[in-house]
Amino acid sequence: MTLFRNTKLKPEIAVPLYQQIYDHLRIAIVEGQLRQGAKLPSTRALADELGVSRNTILNAYDQLAAEGYLEHIVRKGTFVTQFLPEDFMAPSQSVSRIEHVGRSHRLSKRTDAVLSAPRMPVPSYPPTKEIIALPVGIPALDAFPFDVWAKLMSRHAHGLHPSALNYAQLVGYRPLREAIAEHVIVTRHVNCTPEQVFIVAGTQGALHLTAQVLLNPGDSVWVEDPGYPNARNALLAAGARLVSVPVDGEGIMVDTGIARAPRARMAYVTPSHQFPLGMTLSLKRRFAILDWAKRANAYILEDDYDGEYRFDGHPLAALQGLDNHDSVIYMGTFSKVLFPALRLGYLIVPTALIDAFLAMRCSIGVGLPRLEQTVLAEFIADGHFTRHIRRMRTLYAERRSALLDAASDLPLELEAPHTGLHLIGWLAAGVNDRAAAKCAAEHGVDVVPVSKLAIEAMPRGGLVLGYGAVNQQEIEEGVRRLSAALRAVYE
Asked: Does one domain contain both 166 and 294?
C-alpha cells in the first residue's frame, strides 16, 4: 500500500504494532490522503505487505471502525466512511447560524423551577482580612473537640474489619441509629424506636428522600414564608407545588395554610426555631397543624435543625412528641451541632412508612460511609456529644450577647430569640435589604437579606446576622464594617 511506502513499523518501541498502523491510517484519513469512500486493502493483503499478523491489521481496522473512520461492508470490503467524526465536531455554516440564535437546552420543568428559585448563599468562612462573614447556620468550628474526634477516627480506621468495606446498611449503622433514638427520646421528647431511624446525607438528603416517598408531581406543600430556601428547592425538585404560608409571632399561620390549600399533601415546618425569624410554634398552633394533618390525611415534615440550642431553660419538646396519628416525620442534622462536612443527618419516620422509605432508599443509593457513622455512634454513646452541646450552649449565648452589644448602635431593630445561631436586624421602613447586603459585601462583611429567604414581598427589609462561627474579635470587626455600610445606605 503506497501509504506505507516511506513508513517503517517499529516493533522495538513500546507502542504496539496495531496502534502504529492505526495512527498512520487515521492521520491519512483526517489529512485527506485517504479520501472518504476510498477502499482499503484486505486485512490479509495489508498484513502480507507489512510483514505482520492478520490479527494486527484486524485490531487496527476495528479500532478505526469503532471510532467512525472506517466501515465494513459485507462481501465488498472496508471503506473510509463518507462522514468522518471531525465533520460532526467542526462547526458548519448551518450549525453556526443555529448557535448564533442560541442553543435551547431541554431541561425538566422541575429543574427550571429550581434554577429560578433562590438558594442559601454559601458563607465566606472562615473570616479573612478581606471578608468577615456573619454566617448563618455555621457552628463554632473553632470550638469543636478535634482531639477527641481524631482519636476515635484513628482508632476505628485502624480497626476496620473487611466487612466494613462492603456496601453499607441502607438504613444506617445500627449502633448509631440506637444512639440517636436514645438521645432524641430523652432530649427532644420524640417517640421512636431505632427501627424508625434512617441515616441520611444531612438535611438535603432527608428532604429529597421524604419527597420521593410521599409526593407526586403537582402535590401541594405548605412552606413557611420566609423560610429555608434549600428545603423549598428540594420540594420543587420533586415536582411539588409550593404554597406560601406566612408566619407571625406564634409561627406558621395554620388558618392561612388551610385557606390557601386545605388538601395539601404535606407541610414543611421548623417549629422549635423558625428559620429565619426565630419564633417557636405556639402550643395552640401545634395542635392546630396536627389536627389539620389528621383531617387532610397529610404529613408534617418537622425540621429540628438547631433545637438543641436554647439559652433560657430546657429545649422545647419536638412537635413529633405530640403526634398521635403518625402524621409527623422528624428530621435532624449534625451539620449545625457538630460540623457541616460530616454530612450526616437522620429521619424518624412513622412505623407504617418504614418499608416505603426503605424501598426508596434502596432505589436511590446503597447507604453512607461506615467509618464516620461508627465514630459518631461512639462519640454519642460515650457522652462527648452531650458535653459538646452543653459547652456550645454557653459559648453561643456569649457570642449572641457579644453581637447584641456590638450592634446596639447600628441603625437596626435587633430581634434575637434565646435560641439558635443567628439574629435578625430589621432595617428602617423603605430600605432595601438586598441593597444593604450588597453594600455590606462591598465593605467586606457577608450577611443575608431576609427578602432573599421569602416568597412573597416582605413588609420590611432585614439582615440575618450569624454569630455561631465567629469569635468576639471577628464580631466586633464585622459590626464595624457593617456600620460603615449602613451609613452609606442611609445617606
From this structure: yes
